[in-house]
Amino acid sequence: MRVQIKVLNKSEGVERVFLSEIEDASTTKEVLDEVFRGRQAVGNGYQTMIRCGTDKNFFGVSTKSEITDWITRRLKEEP
Fold first, then answer.
1. What is the pLDDT, as a whole number, of residue 48?
2. Partners of 16 in the beta sheet?
3. How far apart are the C-alpha atoms of 29 and 16, rounded to whole Å?
């Protein structure tokens, strides 16, 4: 399943953005690894959004469990 990840951080007039795409994600671990890489890249106070498969919009996720639940559910939905 294709997964796109966007991690944003805005502080003191500076905006940092981490964009990533996994073409064929098959586990939640590979998605979590990429999310955490993005969070490290932009620093504290981040906002994480994920888009899976054919989604047109990004969906905000905060905690590790939210990301895991979201990706697990989407992997089950994909044929």
1. 95
2. 9
3. 24
Q: Which 8-state DSSP code applies to residue 26?
A: -
Are 5 and 46 contacting, i.e. CB atoms less than 8 angstroms apart? no
**Taking the complete model, does pTM exceed 0.85, yes or no?**
yes
* pLDDT average per 10 residues of sequence, the chain (79 residues): 94 91 93 95 93 92 92 85
Q: What is the DSSP letter of 79?
A: -
CB burial readout 40-65, b (16+ within 10 A) else e: eebeeebebebbbeeeeeeeebeeee
- The span from the CA of 44 to the CA of 47, in Å, is 9
Q: How many domains does the chain have?
A: 1
